[in-house]
Amino acid sequence: MGALSFTSPLLLLALGALPLIWLLLRATPPSPKRENFPAFIILRQLKTAEETPDRTPWWLLLMRLLLAGLIILGLAGPVLNAPAPGTQTGPMLLVVDNSWAAAQHWRTRQDALREAAAEAAQTDRQVFILTTAPERTPAPLEPMTGEAARAAADAMTPAPFAADRAGAASRLAELDRYFTSGAEIRWLSDGLAGEGDQTLTDALSGRGELAIFNDARAPKYQLRPLQSAENALAYRVERLDAAAPAEGAVIATARDGRELARSEFEFAAGELARDVTLNLPLALANELSITRIEGVASAGAVRLSDARDRRALIGLARNAESSSDNLLKGDHYIREALNPYASFLEDDLSTLLQSDVSVIVLDDIGRLRASERDELSAWVERGGVLIRFAGPVLAEAAQDSAPDLIPAPLRGGGRAFGGALTWDTPQHLDIFPAESPFAGLDAADDVLIRRQVLAEPGGETTQRTWARLKDGTPLVTGARQGKGVIALFHVTATPDWSDLPLSGLFIDMLRRLTFLSALGPDAASEGADARYAPLRLLTGEGRMTRPDDAARALTAAELALAPSPARAPGFYGAPEAPLALNAVPVGAAFEPISISGAAIQAYEAAPPVSLSPPLVVAALLLLLADGIIALMLSGRLNWRPAAAALLAAGVISGPMDRASAQPLDAPIEEKIVDAALTTRLAYIASGDSAIDTLTEQGLAALSRELYRRTAIEPAPPERIDPDTDDLSVYSFLYWPIAPGAETPSDAALANIENFMRFGGLLLIDTRDDERAVGAGSTPEGQALQRILGALDIPPLRPVDDSHVLTRSFYLLNSLYGRNNNNPVWVEADSSGSNDGVTALIIGGRDWIGAWAADSFGRPLRPMGSGGPRARELAYRAGVNMVMVAFTGNYKSDQVHTPILLERLGK
């Protein structure tokens, strides 16, 4: 019947019994109506106005016949868009491209799998499912029933890998023992061309009748990174089908989920690629984590950025003896090599040391002044990376004395450049040592070294050689100094002495060195064998998930390879400086599939839909209506009062002016909705812009530590105004007291009191601990006294090492801050409210100054005493306070452990 078919058509013969049902229902009248009468005389005079019919009303007969017809049709199993019965009786092989390219329209493939499973179930055929995405341990190809194939289709998800069709073709030999005759083969392709297409097609065609399916009209997108310009990130959006115009947006997000930039794009008809740029300053560009095409659920529409993609700020020290011609200056080649990956600052060395550069390049500088040497050495000790290039000036300086800040001692002598060696035959590069930062790079055969400043052989030189020539002489030496690194190229940064500055290897080597600074001070200590644990993994739909037990740690060399089941795409390493492995390599092809000699057909427009459930539901509703009508006709259900009540309600509500009706609750502000749905730390504005800025930076740094150390993943902190904002959506509130702060209004005080009363934790910080010698001895303390005089607060007591605040996450002796001279006060007795959790903490230890750090994690305020260890204790105190605010007193029983053990002993 066209698109309609039945799974049990013989049940339709029951429709022939409808005339018999008509006769039975027509011969069954309703129950007679009873009349009470006192005597026969009254009975003779009684005239009944309402007569009881002796037959069932015609409209009720029709409704009951319709009810019976619906039941018969529902049991017959009608199906809309059911597949036509196949003529084949052999097995069915379903080849599924479950790749990232298929994720964009995965439901279409699942519908096709369900349709094939339904056909196999009707004819009781064996079904085999072969997936083409690579797997760690492929499941054996075994026959399954149609019902089992449908269950497998429902559970199947796309993988974040490209289809490996050549590997799938090699597995077809497992099916030869089952295929005694020609099989029906359906290849549900992802529409993307790849290696092994013809190989798989030939292997399938030799085993049965092949049909290839592709949703050519469904758009498929891929996001490809381009070479970025200064302060701009460039990407290319590609699509497979250019028949229709399209539009979308590319969104860049930070590590904490913030949206950093958005760029809209539009495709005209016939256009396959469109370039987009995201303009970001250096500080925000270094926070970039994920860039994706909005609304496209595919790993191919996602690009992960890591510490290697961050743009370092490189300082180029001016050399007065260098040429004014750009092509003769080493700075020119360094800029050309690193321009897509770094920003540059060119100035004298003393000015660079006072800036925020993370890498300093000295091009052929021989002697350093004593003051510059000491400052530069201290800068390297703190974690800077110093890159030096040789040349005539450095070679001349090496003749007289050992230059300062050199990884290995240089050899003086009277060679062509005063200590430089000249060969009759240029030398090639040797392979890079495993302990070198350049390990894994290919030594380019076309790079020739013609001159070089030699290093003293043996000793430390051998251990500090990061790159050498075929004859064993060092090309690059390097060494750690404190937390930083010093590296020396024994050739010039220009092509005078070698071809290295003209090669792509020069770019990779400089990027590896700048990468040491991008990762932080500890990066230089990590060798080539260092392994990075999985942090977040990418699914085929482009979502980030937590790694499972099968995910393993990878080395930097493995992260440079294409993804595979053993190298799942995602983020690896530390949260503050992760390494990324993308699902799609940069140079991967993106073309529509085209196989010679094979016809490609589209998927079915609509999957089969069973009509039995809605027919059964309609029959049940008619059955309920029939019961109600039967009760009404028999007089057992008085419907007049109910109808009168409904009519009265309509009359009363009719004249009401609906435009004047007001909602029961006022609309909720967008800020409150966001705060309720997102975990955030909040602070009360002090009125001093400097204090508020420091407070926001401190809470942001504490939020990052919470993300790194605990299960709490807070968004950026929120600034609130207790006069107007709803505090009930926050759990932790920080209140810095500024000198001369005014007492808040009554409404604000009431809002704060309700916040503490109903479960919030308020931390009041006067930040005067190093100056306070008593209550009210500082302007901040005097302001606090005025505020507390107007605020309804409970009795307070000092915090001791038995309080739950010192045990909620870390075991501490006190709530450490930037200074720790005076006690910290908390609610004296919190057992009667807030589930036993203190609602108030008051101190002057300047916690926000201890936590505050910039976006690179560098502290903004020095500690009072104790150095890094004291700052770590302050972070732990902050984590403890936030954990109490969010988790309550679930650890408070640990405080009473000795008493509980004593009672158990008794």
Automatic annotation (TrEMBL):
Record-annotated DUF4159 domain positions: 680-886
Pfam families from the UniProt entry: BatA, DUF4159
Keyword annotations of the record: Membrane, Transmembrane, Transmembrane helix
Keyword Ion transport set for record: no
InterPro entries, per the entry: Aerotolerance_reg_N, Class_I_gatase-like, Double_TM_dom, DUF4159
Membrane-crossing segments per the record: 6-25, 58-80
All copies of domain Aerotolerance regulator N-terminal, residue ranges: 4-78
Family annotation (Gene3D superfamilies): 3.40.50.880, Domain of unknown function DUF4159
NCBIfam families: two_anch
Database matches in PANTHER family: BLL2463 PROTEIN
Protein name: DUF4159 domain-containing protein
Organism per entry: Hyphococcus aureus
